[in-house]
Design goal:
Layout (H helix, E strand, L loop, with lengths): L9 E6 L6 H14 L5 E2 L7 H13 L4 E6 L5 H10 L4 E6 L13 H14 L11 E2 L1 H22 L1 E7 L13 H5 L3 E6 H10 L6 H12 L9 H18 L5 E6 L4 H6 L4 H8 L5 E2 L4 H14 L3 E8 L3 H8 L10 E6 L13 E4 L1 H7 L10 E7 L3 E10 L5 E10 L9 E6 L3 H10 L6 E5 L4 H10 L4 E4 L15
Parallel strand pairs: 1-2, 1-3, 3-4, 4-5, 6-7, 6-8, 8-9, 13-16, 15-18
Antiparallel strand pairs: 10-11, 10-17, 11-16, 12-13, 14-15, 14-17, 15-16
Length: 492
């Protein structure tokens, strides 16, 4: 996994109310550790009071744990157990033991009841704890729930230690990129906003960098012969090194980095290429580089990368699928209406590993029209990674801040269809059930921009839990036809 994505070291602390047998909680904790298929540190301190809590937190800190499972093996001491979340600097999951050890006298733990008091106490103290959909279970059931917690913890740790580096300013009259960043500061994210001139100076300082030839060879290996411009690789390699070095030099107190860079209209004329392919290469390594200074897009991508441990991308919710493509290649072959489909597009920032085999470094048609003489061969407009996006399950999602500074989000699961787009750019035909209604009553109604992040897999459940843990109260999704949106006309 990329060094820009956190590694979760998980610990488990058992708690016990002093009027219940402590051995019951300890036995049940050991059973979970035995059932869990990953690595987990078993804290030897069982928490019955506040002093135990301090000892347990000190112990898991010494073991370098950065995420915790707080396990109610019996009813549990509601104040000490919730204070674990206050004193531990990392996400905490709270789960409770189901009964079933064969003895309903001395072997009954009442953790089902204790979880209610635990959650109530967390709320009274304004503490955050991750509680799964059903937090009570056997050792095997809780082991499965803990496995689901790991990617969520990874995303929470990543966000808490993230710096978004921008090279802007954010474009005027391009509101995908203009949103209050107050919400990101509230999440603990740091923002470093720079000028395009800062980036240009740093780029020029990397001229003739001795590492450039090795990057060029890696680009050739990635793309394959005939899929790149030989004379362009050195320019793009120089830019890749510029971004990577900037990240290391400007990370400061933070551990992880995402970029949001301005890529037009001045960039191609001053740098001599389009940055899209380089952006795709960094995204494939867990370092998202959002187009058009889209800060919330960069954060959205980074959350997806943490959850999946895989490459993500950022696309325009771009154009409808024409009827002739739908009638010929989709209708009767896939269970989607025409309005369930749309095309997701960007100039060429999607990692090559998520594209069809015929992908290649090409030129940006729109920028070529604007920046280069009519009829001329493309030069500075080259550098996009173009081709159809490969068929895959996907989750389309975004974290955003509204005009009042409140965080909101949406999540919609679907797929990229194995259907040729017959178009240009990095592009795919996306299909999401009830997309037409979702488009109108979420994306338009709630004022979302046209950029959406794409995770390659169905991770809606994990995203929902992550956004909920981050305190996002408005989490929209593509509702089924039998569940109308509040703004949906019932007589339409």
């Amino acid at each position: 996994m990329s060094q820009n994505i956190p590694q979760v070291k998980l610990g488990i602390i058992a708690v016990s109310r002093d009027c219940f047998p402590i051995a019951l909680s300890e036995m049940r904790r050991a059973n979970i550790v035995k059932a869990y298929k990953g690595e987990i540190y078993e804290c030897p301190v069982t928490v019955e009071n506040e002093k135990d809590m301090l000892k347990a937190v000190a112990d898991v800190n010494a073991a370098e744990c950065n995420a915790l499972v707080v396990f109610l093996g019996n009813f549990g001491p509601e104040t000490p157990e919730t204070l674990i979340a206050k004193n531990f600097d990392g996400p905490c999951m709270f789960v409770a033991a189901a009964e079933g050890d064969g003895d309903m006298i001395n072997g009954r733990g009442d953790a089902y009841c204790g979880m209610l008091n635990c959650s109530y106490n967390l709320g009274m103290r304004h503490l955050k704890g991750y509680i799964p959909e059903y937090p009570v279970g056997t050792a095997e059931e809780l082991a499965d729930k803990i496995a689901e917690f790991v990617p969520i913890a990874r995303a929470i740790i990543g966000v808490k230690n993230l710096k978004v580096i921008t090279f802007g300013p954010r474009p005027q009259d391009f509101f995908a990129c203009n949103a209050p960043i107050k919400g990101l500061y509230e999440l603990g994210i740091e923002i470093e906003e720079n000028s395009e001139l800062d980036l240009l100076v740093a780029y020029k300082n990397h001229a003739n960098d001795p590492r450039i030839p090795a990057i060029c060879e890696d680009m050739k290996k990635e793309m394959g012969e005939g899929k790149y411009y030989e004379d362009l690789n050195a320019r793009m390699a120089q830019f890749e090194l510029t971004l990577l070095d900037w990240a290391e030099e400007h990370k400061g107190s933070r551990k992880y980095v995402a970029f949001a860079d301005k890529c037009w209209p001045a960039f191609p004329s001053q740098f001599g290429f389009e940055p899209c392919y380089v952006n795709s290469r960094l995204a494939s390594r867990g370092i998202p580089v959002a187009c058009e200074v889209d800060i919330y897009g960069a954060v959205s991508e980074y959350i997806g990368a943490c959850l999946t441990g895989d490459a993500v991308t950022l696309l325009d919710i771009n154009n409808s699928v024409p009827g002739y493509i739908y009638d010929t290649d989709i209708k009767g072959k896939f269970d989607y209406t025409l309005t369930d489909t749309f095309m997701g597009f960007h100039c060429g920032n999607t990692p090559s590993c998520k594209m069809c085999a015929d992908r290649a470094v090409k030129y940006q048609l729109i920028q070529h029209r604007v920046l280069e003489p009519e009829g001329s061969e493309p030069d500075i407009s080259r550098g996009t990674l173009e081709g159809d996006i490969a068929p895959s399950d996907i989750t389309f999602y975004r974290l955003q801040c509204d005009s009042n500074g409140d965080l909101r989000s949406y999540i919609a699961q679907g797929e990229v269809l194995p259907v040729a787009t017959q178009s240009f750019g990095g592009i795919g035909i996306f299909a999401i059930k009830e997309m037409g209604r979702f488009y109108r009553h979420v994306l338009i109604q709630k004022g979302y921009p046209h950029h959406g992040a794409v995770a390659f897999g169905h991770v809606g459940k994990l995203l929902f839990e992550t956004f909920k843990f981050l305190g996002v109260k408005d989490i929209a999704y593509n509702q089924p036809a039998n569940l109308p949106y509040p703004t949906e006309n019932p007589w339409a």
